């Protein structure tokens, strides 16, 4: 029994060495970490496709697909995550302004402008990289393939500058395939309960028939007037559209009324969400929207 204290001391010493080694390894991992914070899971899903480097740690402030980013208010912990990140990826254009206000803009990658200087640059880039120019800025820019490609290039540059290994080629190829599928969509007449899919519809050459007043109100995140809603219901009643695009994340009694009216007229309803539901990545989210529109028959 005299040897017991010696054995106990030896075990304790080994445990301390093991804990010290694990702590040192953890410190090394933290020192090598490249932290990427994104406003929504749309952008985190894209970043994860650009690098499988274990040092790249990606997190999103808005993870749950049920949250409406328009009305989201970040917590102090959310803002700390963004400030501590090495790279911050956002949509820009005011959509997720909370994610880059007070953040060093040198580490922010945005699909749309986040200040006056970048707006001028974006206008130039928009002409260089797009076959068309959007008159009204629509903040749902993740449905614009060219904008996503451009953002992915900038994120890749940031990651490489930070020392990360990247493998963006496969993602870029998949984006190009999705772009071709959009061009091949039927030339449908469409209306939207929220102008969420504008970029996708424009690329496809579809005929957007949402009444002007209703559309302008929802673009400005205002409540459409009674006359705007009446005009929309008239479009549905007259069967002037092939499909109604419905955003379930911004569902209200008014949008439910529009959906019910479309269903009563046997007009197909295609749900296109604001952000992917939990467990779905960006590419499958994008392709689901494309495939659902492809299944609609033109009247």
From TrEMBL:
SUPFAM superfamilies assigned to the protein according to its UniProt record, in alphabetical order: Helical backbone' metal receptor (SSF53807)
Any GO CC annotation of this UniProt entry: cell envelope
Tagged with keyword Cytoplasm: no
A GO BP annotation: metal ion transport
Segment forming the signal sequence: 1-24
UniProt subcellular location: Cell envelope
Main location per the UniProt record: other
Pfam annotation, one family: ZnuA
GO molecular function annotations of the record: metal ion binding
Alphabetized UniProt keyword annotations: Lipoprotein, Metal-binding, Signal, Transport
PANTHER family: HIGH-AFFINITY ZINC UPTAKE SYSTEM PROTEIN ZNUA-RELATED (PTHR42953), METAL-BINDING PROTEIN HI_0362-RELATED (PTHR42953:SF1)
Protein name as catalogued: Manganese ABC transporter substrate-binding lipoprotein
Organism for this UniProt entry: Corynebacterium gerontici
Organism taxonomic ancestry: Bacteria, Bacillati, Actinomycetota, Actinomycetes, Mycobacteriales
């Amino acid at each position: 029994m005299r040897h017991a204290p010696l054995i106990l001391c030896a075990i304790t010493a080994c445990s301390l060495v093991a804990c010290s080694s694990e702590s040192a390894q953890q410190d090394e991992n933290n020192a090598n970490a490249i932290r990427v914070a994104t406003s929504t899971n749309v952008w985190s899903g894209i970043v994860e496709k650009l690098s499988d480097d274990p040092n790249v740690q990606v997190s999103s402030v808005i993870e749950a697909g049920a949250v409406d980013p328009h009305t989201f208010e970040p917590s102090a912990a959310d803002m700390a995550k963004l400030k501590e990140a090495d790279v911050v990826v956002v949509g820009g254009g005011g959509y997720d302004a909370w994610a880059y206000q007070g953040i060093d803009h040198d580490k922010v990658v945005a699909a749309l402008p986040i200040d006056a200087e970048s707006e001028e640059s974006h206008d130039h880039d928009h002409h260089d990289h797009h076959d068309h120019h959007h008159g009204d800025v629509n903040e749902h820019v993740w449905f614009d393939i060219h904008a996503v490609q451009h953002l992915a290039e900038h994120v890749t540059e940031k990651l490489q500058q930070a020392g990360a290994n990247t493998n963006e080629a496969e993602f870029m190829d998949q984006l190009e395939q999705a772009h071709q599928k959009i061009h091949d969509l039927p030339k449908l007449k469409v209306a939207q309960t929220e102008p969420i899919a504008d970029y996708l519809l424009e690329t496809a050459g579809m005929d957007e028939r949402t009444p002007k007043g209703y559309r302008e109100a929802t673009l400005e995140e205002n409540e459409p007037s009674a006359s705007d809603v009446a005009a929309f219901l008239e479009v549905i009643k007259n069967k002037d559209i092939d499909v109604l695009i419905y955003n379930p994340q911004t569902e209200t009694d008014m949008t439910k009324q529009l959906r019910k009216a479309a269903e009563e007229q046997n007009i197909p309803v295609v749900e296109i969400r604001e952000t992917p539901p939990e467990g779905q990545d960006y590419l499958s989210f994008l392709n689901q929207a494309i495939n659902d529109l492809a299944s609609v028959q033109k009247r």
